[in-house]
Amino acid sequence: MDPHSFRVLEYPLILDALAGQSASVLGVERAHALTPCADPSLVRSRLQETREACALLLEGPLSDLSQARDIRASVVRAAIRGARLAPQDLTEVADTLDAGELVRRRLGSSSERPALAAIAARLRPPAGLAREIRRAVLPDGQIADSASPELYHLRVSARRARESARDTAQSLLADTRLAPVIAEPVVTLRNDRYVIPVLPGYRTLLSGIVQDQSATGHTLFLEPLALVEQNNAIRRLEREADAEVDRILGALTDQIRAGADDIMATVEALADCDLAIAKARLAVRWAAHEPRITEGGPLSLLHARHPVLLESRRQKAAGAEEVVPIDVPLADARVLVLTGPNAGGKTVALKTVGLLALMVQAGLQIPASPDSTVPVFRGVYADIGDEQSITQDLSTFSAHMARMTAILELADGQSLVLIDELGAGTDPIEGAALGGAILESLAGRGGWVLATTHLDGIKAFVAQDPRMANGAVEFDLDNMRPLYTLHMGFPGRSFAIEVACRLGVPLSIVHRARELRGDTSAGLAALLDRLHALEGARARDAAEAAQDRVEAQRLRSELEAKLQEAAARLRDIQTRAARLLAEIAGAGRKRIEAAVADLRQGGPARAAREAVAELPRLIDEALEDVASGIPAAAALGELDTVAEGQTVRVRNLGQVGTVLSPVNPQGLVEVQVPLGKVRVPLADLGPAHSQTPARGERLVTWTAGAGDALSPEIKVIGCTVEEAVAQVGRYLEDAVLGGLTSVRIVHGKGTGRLRKGLADFLKTHPLVSGFHLAEFNEGGAGATIVDLGSRPAAGSTG
Hints:
single chain; 6-stranded mixed beta sheet; 23 strands; alpha/beta
């Protein structure tokens, strides 16, 4: 691949955009190092990786990558015998290993995502190392007292020694005999030793060692003899604690040294994973697709947009002009010469083709139709007339020829060559002849060539060679703007004189230019105009035919829809019947459970027997509704949508409530009813003024989510107390309505703040009858078991 072409095609800007989607410094490094490759199998592998990452993103964001750090230097340092990594370095190692473990679990070993599974297989964080580091190193970088029993003992002893020294100093300050020499009744530290401030005449009443004095010399900071041994003991304990800290850091560093290979492999795999996810995020950002990859052609880009223009528009304020897509097909002819007016979009088309080709071979999806076809090129070479491509010591023409010489030496049958303003910068006749010879040479090699020109000689030459094709970009002369439409098969006019007139060139000059142009050129221009008119008529006829086909397809679809509607009605009746039977079973279960509960609480057995004996009658009544239930439900009416504050009837609950939120992406609506807040599907809501619901609708059912069963467990690890309280509150309402009598809240151990905050919340919750920490095999202090039901008068058992 050609670095010069990368630059003139603005490929580095694509890498900058890709790096912007990376979550870690590892991904940013990988993004900036991404280069196109010419191996078709590797290109397909890269694209598969991006495709799988796009599918993974649809399941939810992969935020764990953001805590990965570039710890390679720390691992190399740890390999040195006797090295000690700093606590901050150890924390970064733990963060990265945790990220590796979380990402490994998320990627898994799914056969549906083999490329990402291969990355996951390289994530090998040493088992337990991150946990050991976090047990020893606190988030602020300090070594925890509990890092070792010896450190705990030394620090406790040091704290006690400091308390004893302070007490001794305070007793000296309180001694009335020493009052004449005490400068200030405070205990302070000098040279990390406890001292008291005294006046210069202290020696008559007090012995000790002067550790410091004030700036004026009027106050001396004296370490009384009574404190010397205590200060010495403090220093000795702290030195021993420092030595133990050094030993702990050394032990952790040794573990890193032992697992260096696995750690390095994990870091590299995290970088690869971050790059794959960044490619997927960029594809989503640009609404990109994966084209079909071929090794021998054709090259066909459909509905293609320039990615740099897309990114530029996204960064501008709303209302910025849309990026107009273009179609560039190279099928029968591999050499395409684009012609048309200046500012007509020729160079943009050229750059779009080259840049998208580079993106595909880098494994990136492109902002083009998925029906596009892109070959795998061995080389992409561009000669585009930007200022950057012209060396200061060469003329424009000489610089172009120097570049063309280099391209002709490298280009072969698997190359893409892009030439802007072919034949420009010299005499038009000689330039056209030279341009034709260049095109002929490249066509003979069998590669793909896109060129732009204004020279009629080149247009005529291309029309005579079946390996080449002319293409005209369309231009709106009235509004002076390009239309970005490419017409294949004939050349376009440059409109130089017309554009000059529109731009305000004096009419006298315009008229003289037309005279100088001569009749021959005018006749050629008229011929091109007629060809354009014929092509426009053909395009309109094709559009009308396409519209007729669409209308025919619509009528056919309507007929098929009517047939499907009849089948759907039958399925609906079957579904409603099955649902009614499920409600009958649920109601029976609840009545039996209630009767058993009354008996356990000492209730009369007769009432329980009566409640159970009434079940057959309820079942008979409900079964009578199977045939009539569908009309009764339909009579309730259906709502297409709801708004906050609207009064509705919740059919499954048989209650009227107020809408609290609009329909969410899962099709659920939050409604306030007398028994609490519920989330139900929109289809279960009807107008509040509808008729009394059928008996079957009084049976309470509950949907926990979009078709999911209600779990007896909720996890709030990582949430703040406020977030956890909000989630648990909604979950408890769901659990009670779903018939659960006991649930588990997994909050983790951590600092205990989250557990205490939840406990305070549960103490006052009306649906909680009691709660307690889970048993050891259920999570211990990391989980809370909550009993649901009526709250005892004495309060919570928690």
